Amino acid sequence: xxxxxxxxxxxxxxxxxxxxxxxKEFFKPVVTVPYPFKTLKMCDRYRGHIELIENENGEPKCxxxxxxQRGCPSGCISITTKTETYEVEVKGExxxxxxxxxxxxxxxxxxxxxxxxxxxxxxxxxxxxxxxYNLASTRKEDFHFNLLNRLKERNS
Amino acid sequence: xxxxxxxxxxxxxxxxxxGPQHPATHGVLRVKMEMDGEYIIKxxxxxxxxxxxxxxxxxxxxxxxxxxxxxxLDYLGAMGYTHGHVLAIERAAGIEVPExxxxxRAIMVxxxxxxxxxFWFGAFVMDLGGFTPLMYAIQDREHILDMLEAVTxxxxxxxxxxxxxxxxxxxxxxxxxxxxxxxRMRKSLKKYAALVTGNIIFRKRLEDIGPLSAEMCRxxxxxxxxxxxxxxxxxxxxxxPYSVYPEFDFDVPVYHQxxxxxxxxxxxxxxxxxxxxxxQGLDKLPxxxxxPKKKPKLIKPPKGDYYQAVETARGSFGIRLVSDGxxxxxxxxxxxxxxxxxxxxxxxxxxxxxxxxxxxxxxxDLVIPEIDR
Amino acid sequence: xxxxILNAVVAVVIAIAFAAANAAYLxxxxxxGAGRIQRRPGPNVNLFGILQPPLDGIKLMTxxxxxxxxxxxxxxxxxxxxxxxxxxxxxxxIPFSDTIVAHxxxxxxxxxxxxxxxxxxxxxxxxxxxxNKYSVMASVxxxxxxxxxxxxxxxxxxxxxxxxxxMNLKELALSQSGGILHWHIIPSLSSPLMPVxxxxxxxxxxxxxxxxPFDLAEAESELVAGFHTEYGSMGFGLFFMGExxxxxIGASLITILFLGGWGxxxxxxxxxxxxxxxxxxxxxxFIWIRWTFPRTTVYGLLNLSWxxxxxxxxxxxxxxxxxxxxx
Lengths: 156, 373, 327
Ligand code: SF4
Ligand code: SF4
Fold this sequence. Notes:
By secondary structure, chain A is of the alpha+beta class. Chain A folds into two domains: 1-31; 50-155, Alpha-Beta Plaits, CATH 3.30.70.3270. Chain A contains four helices and five strands; from the N terminus they run H-E-H-E-E-H-E-E-H. Chain A is elongated, with a radius of gyration of 28 Å. The termini of chain A are far apart. With 327 residues, chain C is mostly helical. In chain C, helix 10 packs across helix 11 (272-290). Chains in contact: A-B, A-C, B-C. Bound molecules: iron/sulfur cluster (2 copies).
């Protein structure tokens, strides 16, 4: 009989303790951010999708060495290049030299795992993570980024 | 409580498909249950709804390219899994890891363990019908995620460890934030103890419910908090020490009641122990580089068979790596803890009521992508 | 004669409007209360979320009502109506103050209980009619729960009826006028265990209205959504409103039976405002309890009723009967 009543009383007491905790929380300030009206700033190291970096002339720094494309585990980078020949003067002689030029840098963000292998593989510091996180769409084509165009848009 | 003796006539039972989309399974797990009213007669877990062939990917890709995959096994405790991976490759390829990197790794893994247990705590109480503790747990977890995000750049799939070291170094802000976090977390743990652990409804639902004997745990190869709640004193960090864990002073909580409550208490105590490890790690954190000076450019472990186990938030996670000396692994076997833990469910839930069985399933802490990798 | 019919019609219309408005805005109150307890704001767009309930209503109404194949169509459609209608009808006999009462009946208490038990019929029909295993399990749970909790509830009411000698809700409230010391919650010589009775009645009303921690019939982590798993659109809306209407009735009943109805604790300015204040405070505590505790088990719930609530309320009944004889 004693155990019966002590269980009831201890049970009621434990319930009261729980209620007092939630009651205290009731009067504490809210901790959430009302998202579409207020947004957070991403930290410096935030890893968004990748973005090309430009040099002083506003051209992409990328030299089309393809290291990023080869290192990407998901195969989501596709780089297109063309080879240009140009002439330079070396010791008074005109020589034709070949140079690879970047003509397209496409990122298929749907399969990107944001691992950072591409950035680590790039020896020229030509790509970086963007801070963008408001990405939403109903079409997956919207996530096929043409990074070269994005760079141009940023400049203009 | 064991269910009453049920005398079943043929044709009186029905089959209930719990999942693959069901709120209690927290993912795409399907449990086929043969039911007699509210009592489960037989249960069969069905896997395969989120199979992504991580092992095969591990064999087809070059070693560094597999790194992001390991974070995707267990989205709640990703650090621990990457830790196992880098340790395995380092052991195979014979790469030295600088001391600072080791300490940071341990701190990160323990922070992530606290985050994972916090989320489990919330989700578990939600399985039992209490929604508010989940929100409190998420608030605390959010502090951890913020810290980890500031360092790693990501909140869930960190991909932070590299073979031989780390992706980038921690700064003073992180150290300060982590120091400030520890007392706050201890206070929260007290709150949880009062709000949830002591609650009579909660205790009634867990105590003596879902017994898993030590023998059963051994039979199925259960590890982690599940085994420790059944009285098996096994923690990879203590029994097969790796990394800098021998330097830390921490206890391994073990309970002998074998019920859901024991598993719950093991995890709650583990959070406190993890906080202790983080505290010591922050105190001992040495200066120095985070990547080794000489590191092979292309990772090609010599021919051989390697195994490395780590203690993740869910139990012993092992990687078996068979190398044939090329840049891809010949065999990349992942031994994931919840895969073994989950199979306890089939046997243990026989004769239980469905609500007790699902509470027990919650106490196993299943993360489906990790079972079905 | 004409006047009485007109009166009744007006009363019913007001009752429906009151029930519907209450149901709609209690959802909002619940969501905001839950939000505050969890340190988030809850629905707060457009002036504290004032427009949230009507917009939710529009959303529910514009959705298609899907009747699952193989379901018993008639039962499936009747169930939500059966959940809502008795709840509204019960409002007719509840006195908000000594003048505001649609129809004061001599058997008001009995009528409310009669209509409240129709609620479990609605759940049973919904579960059976929707031909879903989860729903059937939920409705079976609900029925056993309702039976288990109506007994201690009625025993407690019998105790009070014995003390006051009336079943008319208005007279029940009037018998407690004159300040807090006359309320039934305060122990008196003839019934020293009244606070316990109050607690029992409170717990039973939680169980009767399917509120957490007794919301076994819609245990979302086990039975998906319980008896209304298959309901969408306004069918779900009606269940939802019915639930909240039951909550208002439960709170009103507690107020009338134990908390002195529309009387002020100090005996000053009795009126409808005191009644509403008490009712909404009780509803707040319902919300507060819901967002604090986990759910009980089926057997835990039945154990609580049969092993604790029923013996204690029976004891209280006998004690009160004995003491009434003595004094
Ligand atoms: S972040 Fe990883 S997956 Fe994404 S493009 Fe770079 S290498 Fe590929
Ligand atoms: S690795 Fe760098 S430089 Fe080379 S192609 Fe990629 S972005 Fe361009």
